Amino acid sequence: MPAADISGEVRHAIAAAAKESPAFNHARLTELGWDELLESEPQLAVVTLFEEMGRLRLTGPALDSVVLAAVGGPYPWATTRVLYPVPGQRGASLAGSQLSGLTFDVVDETIEQVLCPVPTPAGIELQVVPASACRAVPVGGLDKSAGLYRVSAEVSAAHAASTEEGWAAGLMAARRALAHELIGIAGDLLAIAVGHVTVREQFGRPLGANQAVQHSLATAKVELSAASELAAEAWRTCTPLAAAVAKGMASRASNTIAANGQQALGAIGYTWEHSWRHPLRRAMLLSVLLGSADECDAEIGATLARTGVVRIGTVAGGQE
Amino acid sequence: MPTEITEKLGELPAEEFQQLLDGWIADNAGVLRAYEPDESLSVEQVTAFPRRYQNLLYDAGWLRAGWPAEIGGTGGSAERRAQVYESLSAAGYALPETLPTLEVLIPALLSYAPELAIRYSPAFLRGDELWCQGFSETEAGSDLAAMRTRAKRDGDGWVITGHKVWNSYASVSDRCVLLARTGEQSGRHRTISAFLVDMDTPGVQARPITTMTGRNELSEIYFDSVAIPADRLIGQENQGWAFAMFLMQWERGMYAWMRQAWCLHQLEMLRPYITDARFERDFGAAYGRVTALRMVARRTLRRLAEGDFVGPETSVDKLLLSSSEQAVLNLARDVLRGRFELDDSPDMHRWRGDYFYTRSSSIYGGAAEIQRDIVAQRVLGLPRARG
After folding, report:
1. pLDDT band per the 50, 70, 90 thresholds, residue A318
2. Please, which residues bridge with residue B220 across strands?
3. Pairing of strands A161-166, A123-130
4. Are B216 and B288 in the same domain?
5. Which of A10, A166, A172, B63 has the most CB atoms within 10 Å of its CB?
6. Looking at the structure, do residues B293 and B358 belong to the same domain, yes or no?
């Protein structure tokens, strides 16, 4: 079956399942055939699922499957959770022997281990912590519907074991997937704003007939196009640099669309009643996970200042 | 390189072409270094100078690849040209200043007036001639369709009267691709035609305009009853607007590609000055934006090479082009502060020149405001602005 058809079918199946519940846990994703698709068509799988996750604001541990596939090693997705650094951190937070971070689903009795990126003097090291040592509490905060858990674990030498696998591959894969999720949300935000200024009239004409409003949303569209092209390139050029550029631009695009769209919505967008706040809050949350726009820029700048400017892709590359 | 290889360069696959190209650039470092741009040169000196540079690249076969044999090329995809421009930039060499004009005029001429292209563009491609574009007028800038320069039928030919402005290199050009009114003024874009006019025709007078960079690269051109033969009409009568729109696509594709290649080299040159965390962040941000430009330019270029007509979404490319260049040169000004303002070294002269030059990229070829109008109305589908 051509890729476009598979992608269409997957989108359809996701949308149908999302009507029941936005929580896509391991069992429901497995039912959708997620494991096989991720293995046979990784790009199509990730692009399709994560853009839909963004657009429909789905939750669940799909990102773990992507990270685990990239990291490799003997950690089945069914029984493993990945711990993600809290925004602003590059690895799990450490306070004495207490390690903490975020997971995209509960750590219950079905889970045997949690894979944790732990900062060490040598860099970020992936450690395996037994699930029994972990305590998971649902996260409230900005977006209660995101299905995040704050996980803390008492780590001792007896518990934690370092892995052969590095965090870099997992981070790269996770950033790429999050870039697609953000592009999905940003597309939804832009559609809401465009819809509003098309029908809402003042001074006898639609808001969107005013050049100031048009230019603000056109600027948002430019950012979204830039983010989409960079996310696509991160699959052709599979490097941590390309993934950081993609995540950084996706975060920046969603920030711009959130700000410009908010203004375009006027007072109605300021209400609790308006649906705008749902994608807005999800975008605000995901835009700072695994590197905000500024953090990605700083990381890219520091790397390139050291290594020299890298030209991502070639003119003859990028064929579909 | 042996002639038999030069003659088939265009048809080589991308990888093989790239290997030969990289080898040639490395072997000719000494020759290429002689063509470093020098901001202190006047436009008269500068245009004599890239013509020699262009001759060199042409004779070596690199400017012939990706162009059809009818105009002196060796065939193959336009992507071969993009490879040449990128590789020269990546190795730190400036491109001949004449190339951007060539890259928009020749593809459009080949499409709309193949006979004129075959007859005249080989000399342009070789670097023996320089051409300019005659589009804008004092009362027709962003509103190009308001142009008043008129071409009247006169027996077998045309007589052109009017005034053009903001024409790059016109004062030193041999020919001009001109847009002129060939019907009622009220017909706006429907009554415009395109012509190829020799700059030495009696009645043509070009006067250089010094830009804020300090160089006189722009011009204004007066046309005082300039008689040209009928066969200098490009395409059909009143097809000028379609021709101009076709031409603009190449400014989005190939020109944008040239500029991203150049921007990445500018970033490379700024690398030694990236000494603190704030500069690192701004460096990363500028790099990300240029890389986005690189991706959209490549996509547009590929579609053009395949013969697609690219639509209003390429206004996104143009907006990324201006914001990328400006981000890079804003960073340059920031990290070079002190030297940028006070030094008279050739380096600082060049950085200042490039800084000011990049201010024009959100104005020429349709100002950023026009591009945002197009994105809003024709991509996002917002209602046309009124009043």
Report:
1. low
2. B165, B207
3. antiparallel
4. no
5. B63
6. yes
Return d(Cα B375, Cα B120) in angstroms, integer.
36
Contact list, B14 vs chain A (CB under 8 Å):
314-316
Task: Locate the chain A residue with the closest alpha carbon to B386.
Answer: A209
Read off the pTM: 0.96
pLDDT tens-digit map of B244-261: 999 999 888 999 999 999
Count of structural domains within chain B: 3
Q: Do B225 and B252 have their domain in common?
A: no
How many Å apart are CA A8 and CA A54, to the nearest integer? 16
Q: Does A305 touch chain B (CB under 8 A)?
A: yes
Q: Which of B265, B283, B376 has its CB closest to that of A214? A: B376
**pLDDT the model gives residue B226:** 98
**Domain edge (last residue) among B238, B258, B286:** B238
Going by C-alpha positions, the residue among A255, A258, A250 that lies closest to residue A193 is A258
What is the rounded distance in angstroms from the CA atom of residue A222 to the CA atom of residue B289?
11
Q: Collapse the DSSP code of A280 into the 3-class scheme (helix H, G, I; strand E, B; otherwise coil) and give the result.
A: helix
Q: Which domain holds residue B42?
A: 3-129
Judge if B245 and B167 occupy the same domain: no
Phi, psi of B204 (to 5 degrees): -95, 125
Mutation site for A-interface testing, chosen from B15, B295, B331 by largest number of A Cβ within 10 Å: B295
Same domain flag for B183 and B89: no
Question: DSSP labels for B289-345?
Answer: HHHHHHHHHHHHHHHHHTTPPP-TTHHHHHHHHHHHHHHHHHHHHHHTTTHHHH--S
Among B280, B289, B372, beta carbon nearest to A215 = B372
Rg (CA), chain B: 21
CB of A13 within 8 Å of a chain B CB? The answer is no
pLDDT tens-digit map of A12-58: 999 999 999 999 999 999 999 999 999 999 999 999 999 999 999 99
Of A46, A230, A243, A126, whose CA–CA distance to B320 is shortest? Answer: A230
Contact: A311, B320; criterion CB under 8 Å: no
Cα–Cα–Cα angle for B260, B46, B149, nearest 5°? 85
Which residues of B form the catalytic set? Answer: 251
ipTM of the complex, rounded to two decimals:
0.96
The one-letter amino acid at B66: G
In terms of Cβ atoms closer than 10 Å to its own Cβ (0-12, 13-18, 19+), residue A301 is: buried
Instruction: Indicate the pairing of strand B150-154 with strand B131-134.
Output: unpaired
Of B129, B156, B188, which closes a domain?
B129
CA atoms within 13 A on the CB side of B330: 12
- The residues facing B226 across adjacent strands are B160
Inter-chain contacts counted by CB atoms under 8 A, chains A and B: 170
Tokens read off for B386? 């009124």
